[in-house]
Amino acid sequence: MSSSGTGYGTAVTAWRAAAPDWDAYTRHAFVEGLRDGTLPRAAFLHYLAQDYVFLKHFSRAWALAIVKADTLPEMEAATATVHGLLHYEMGLHVKICAEAGIDAETLAATPEHPGNMAYTRYVLEAGYSGDFLDLLAALAPCVLGYGEIGARLAAEATSDTYGDWIGTYAGDDYQGICRDVGALIDGALTHRLGPDYATLPRFAMLSARFAQATTLEVGFWDMGLSPSSAPA
Ligand SMILES: Cc1ncc(C[n+]2csc(CCO)c2C)c(N)n1
């Protein structure tokens, strides 16, 4: 595991260090292909189409966070994320795919890959059967991993083929979102478990959720690298 992160918060820094697959996720061959520009365009577009489906369910999971929240600021943070996903991030996917000749209707009809389904339904299930903390622990690797990937690739990229993608996640706006989500998690833990939350068994259970979602992110990149594994 890498020893350093991007410092998004106390809890996520601990969870990140304890997740066995963190490097497999953030330094995956797909990510390295974005870094050096060798990722085939077909793999990128296949990934984007699956990610469009992913974001739809991920938005539902953040909407569930509004339901599971306990304070108005928690509700506001979750609402802002839902809004950003539906009105900004999904639109970016539509635009990039349209430029590559995949129209919005085709994108919306993308068959959902089982690895995609496994990940989003795992996150939703964490929220359905658990509380706000369970849901945030399952949501966190996605948000913060892309922040870490973006920041590293902005410094280490050797090609600008995927510069727009890298720039989106390396940019100040997205890095600010990552710090906000890290602070939301630290605040939610303190509010529910007290300031010594990191010493409690519950914290280790949440860490395991974070690790599981991290492993499912690895599967998502794997899927992106093998377009032929998509269901009909
Ligand atoms: C598989 C997969 N994992 C993570 C992200 C990144 N991401 C998902 S939602 C969001 C906005 C804040 O919640 C960001 C950056 C993705 N697009 N696809």
How much is the radius of gyration in Å?
Answer: 17 Å
Q: Supply the number of helical segments.
A: 11
The best one-word shape is globular
Helix content: over 70%
CATH C-level name: Mainly Alpha
Q: CATH superfamily assignment?
A: Heme oxygenase-like
The CATH architecture can be given as: Up-down Bundle
Low-confidence stretches: none
Please indicate the count of domains: 1
Amino- and carboxy-terminal Cα gap:
37 Å
Instruction: Output the CATH topology.
Output: Heme Oxygenase, Chain A
* Ligands bound to this protein structure: the ligand Cc1ncc(C[n+]2csc(CCO)c2C)c(N)n1
Strand content is: under 5%
The total strand number stands at 0
Q: What class would the helix/strand composition place it in?
A: mainly alpha
Rounded mean pLDDT is 93
Main sheet makeup: none
* SSE sequence, one letter per element: HHHHHHHHHHH
GO cellular component, one term: cytosol
Function: Catalyzes an amino-pyrimidine hydrolysis reaction at the C5' of the pyrimidine moiety of thiamine compounds, a reaction that is part of a thiamine salvage pathway.
Pathway: Cofactor biosynthesis; thiamine diphosphate biosynthesis
Catalytic activity: 4-amino-5-aminomethyl-2-methylpyrimidine + H2O = 4-amino-5-hydroxymethyl-2-methylpyrimidine + NH4(+); thiamine + H2O = 5-(2-hydroxyethyl)-4-methylthiazole + 4-amino-5-hydroxymethyl-2-methylpyrimidine + H(+)
Topology (SSEs and partners):
Blueprint: H1 10-18, H2 22-26, H3 29-36, H4 41-68, H5 72-99, H6 104-108, H7 114-129, H8 132-156, H9 163-170, H10 172-193, H11 201-225
Helix pairs in contact: 1-11, 4-5, 4-7, 4-8, 4-11, 7-8, 7-11, 8-9, 8-10, 8-11
This protein binds the ligand Cc1ncc(C[n+]2csc(CCO)c2C)c(N)n1.
